[in-house]
Design goal:
Elements (H helix, E strand, L loop, with lengths): L8 H44 L4 H16 L2 H11 L9 H27 L2 H9 L4 H31 L11 H12 L3 H28 L9
Helix pairs in contact: 1-4, 1-7, 1-8, 2-4, 3-4, 4-6, 6-8, 7-8
Length: about 230
């Protein structure tokens, strides 16, 4: 028996349904930020991985230092630096672009290590065969090594995608209007935080489950020997 407490289920449900369209606007921003950040991380991470594998120490060592710096400093610090420090030097970026760039830079350090592991996992004989065919280093990577590495790195890349998706609420600190930001605004205006924050948590749970299922399907669907990039 409960004393002094009555839960009005109907009003709570009505309130939840009334704010869903508002949170839906934030959901779009959240998905866009995660997609943009992940695209940056995929491209920049591959660039970092290839540069770090360079035989020239003047290229590989500075690249390794950049990767370690991005990986070992907090995302929030990098986000504040891009949003508050760069304008001092005349570089002003929109809040959304700043957030996506911060996510991409942070996770490019992680994806570069995933790429490096995948590239190292390709059999040495593949390099020797490419050398015997007189293929250049660029063609060897693009036509032989990277296609074979992709199926090997899908699970790890998927984990980072899910992790990045859950990191997007951090962008609210630089005024990116994502779901968490809108949920807090709703709470400030209605003095009801439980429902909007619970909905945000539930939506993130659904998103991560869908992403995990899609990654698992992709892992099974891709041929184990590699894919053709052209």
């Amino acid at each position: 028996m409960m004393y002094g407490f009555a839960w009005d289920t109907s009003s709570t449900l009505s309130f939840a349904l009334s704010i869903l369209p508002i949170l839906g606007i934030g959901l779009i921003v959240t998905l866009e930020a995660a997609a943009a950040g992940f695209a940056i991380a995929l491209v920049l991470g591959l660039v970092f991985a290839l540069l770090r594998r360079s035989s020239f120490v003047a290229i590989s060592w500075p690249t390794a230092l950049v990767i370690e710096f991005l990986r070992d400093t907090p995302l929030l610090v990098q986000l504040f630096f891009l949003y508050y420090v760069l304008p001092i030097y005349g570089i002003v970026l929109p809040a959304f672009l700043t957030g996506a760039l911060a996510l991409g830079l942070q996770y490019s350090a992680y994806t570069s290590e995933v790429y490096r592991g995948g590239l190292d996992a390709v059999a040495r004989g593949q390099w020797e065969a490419a050398t015997a065919l007189n293929l250049g280093r660029g063609l060897t990577y693009w036509d032989i090594i990277i296609p074979q590495a992709i199926p090997r790195i899908i699970p790890a890349m998927g984990n980072y995608l899910v992790s990045m998706l859950k990191e997007t609420p951090v962008l609210s600190v630089v005024t990116v209007v994502d779901m968490l930001n809108l949920a807090n605004l709703i709470g400030d205006r209605t003095f009801e935080y439980l429902v909007p924050l619970s909905l945000v948590g539930l939506i993130f749970l659904i998103l991560t489950l869908v992403c995990s299922a899609a990654i698992h399907w992709l892992e099974k669907a891709l041929p184990k020997h590699g894919i053709a990039l052209r």
